[in-house]
TrEMBL record:
Domain ABC transporter: 5-151
Any one Gene Ontology molecular-function term assigned to this protein's record: ATP hydrolysis activity
Source organism of this protein record: Planctomyces bekefii
Keywords on record: ATP-binding, Nucleotide-binding, Transport
Name of this chain's protein: ABC-type oligopeptide transport ATPase
Amino acid sequence: MNPRMTVRDLIAEGPDALKLWTRSEREAKVCEWLERVGLNSQHGSRYPHEFSGGQRQRIGIARALAVDPRLVICDEPISALDVSVQAQIINLLRELRRERGLTYLFIAHDLNMVRVLSDRMAVMYLGRIVETGPAEVLYQHPIHPYSKALIAANPIPDPEVEKSRTRQLIQGEVGSPVNPKPGCLFAPRCSLVHERCHRVTPPLRQTQGGERWVACHAVQDSPE
């Protein structure tokens, strides 16, 4: 956010550029969006530094939706927020999606949050999709070794369970996405690696009756 612009001008920047609002309705529209994302309509005259991280994220949501999009790309929208604030932002996004019929492309490292908001989930490694499928199914029953490691890294909100469970640590070094080696990009760090993995790039193959897609030589297609 431009620190020299008021919240009013930040929210109206897109609609002004696209000529979506007339001058007479601009103020009312800004106030409407501020209130819709849980802020006070009087906040329009303030500057970004006067708000908390969660409040700034709400302003960012208002800015994005003010241009009336059908698709919203959310790139790490909750990574810098406290857990309680993360839940508030996720709930707000879910409400707005239901009200306005939106589609989200939600990008995040926290797969637990991704599954709460998403219908489908895709796990990527070095810019390539290694597994995709229904969000809840993928989270509960991951197939690809990298998906399993990512989900296992999420803490369980029970001290006794968390203390006793075994960690799945990924060994090895991350490869270069700019100059990738032949074969599977995850091969140098994979516990299921075999000789073929270093030579042949695994295609994204349909499995489990078409519900899931996985790029792994170790995963065999289930019968149709």
